[in-house]
Amino acid sequence: MRNIHLAGYGVLVGLLGVWWNDGVVVQEKGFFFGYNGWVWWVVVMQAFGGLLVAVVVKYADNILKGFATSLAIIVSCVVSVFLWGFVVTGQFAAGTSLVLGAVYMYSFPSQPRNSFQLRVVMVTSC
To answer: Is residue 103 within 8 Å of 67, Cβ to Cβ?
Structure first.
């Protein structure tokens, strides 16, 4: 229910943006004017991706979702280089490295604290 509530705000902001930028054109030609097969393919793939993420989170865990996201970044980058001639810039490489590093660090199990650390935390939190 919470996701539907949050998505409602996103739809509202998106529709306001469409109305603000292209309101006259949408009134004249309709909302779906210019949609072709490629656009519908992207819409279907995004919807399928969202449902796939929901299934992964439900039946696996969030860490596995993180690994899948990292793998998707790497695969899409490699495919983009070979199919569309994408040039990997330093900024893209740095951002990708940060995401992959964050997923790697997140996958470590948490270290148990010893009793001294717990006492210090308890004293400073009062």
So the answer is: yes
